[in-house]
Amino acid sequence: MKIFSKIAEQRIREAIERGEFDRLENRGKPLMLDDDVWIPEDLRPAYRVLKNAGCIPPELQLRKEIITLRDLLGGIDDDKERLRKIRELNFKLMRLGELRKRPLDLDQFPEYEAKVCEKLTG
User: Fold this and answer.
1) 75: domain range?
2) Burial grade of 86 (CB within 10 A; 0-12, 13-18, 19 or more)
3) What's the domain count of the chain?
4) Does 93 fall in a domain?
5) The pTM of the whole model exceeds 0.70
6) Which of 37, 52, 74, 100 is deepest in the core (most CB within 10 A)?
7) Which of 86, 89, 39, 101 is nearest to 63 (CA)?
């Protein structure tokens, strides 16, 4: 998965060297990171209302829960409780993948990346 990032970075560097980014329309201007262009048009009004109300989208809430569970696993000594939390974590990871409608980026969860790679190659 990291190989694609390396290839992309290499191609970007080559394009910079060729000067392909020198004539871009908004060159030198700050990015509008608060822009909602990445949110589907039919969901934008609802997301804007949620944002103004201090709520976060379900995907972000689920991601927070996943991170909390992952951190919690390190401190659990009871095997039954640990297994229960692992199952809960796996369910939340699966649910996050469904909500995103695209594959989960395993670089964000390295403990799963190795297991998936092992299953695919072994």
Assistant:
1) 36-117
2) middle
3) 1
4) yes
5) no
6) 100
7) 89
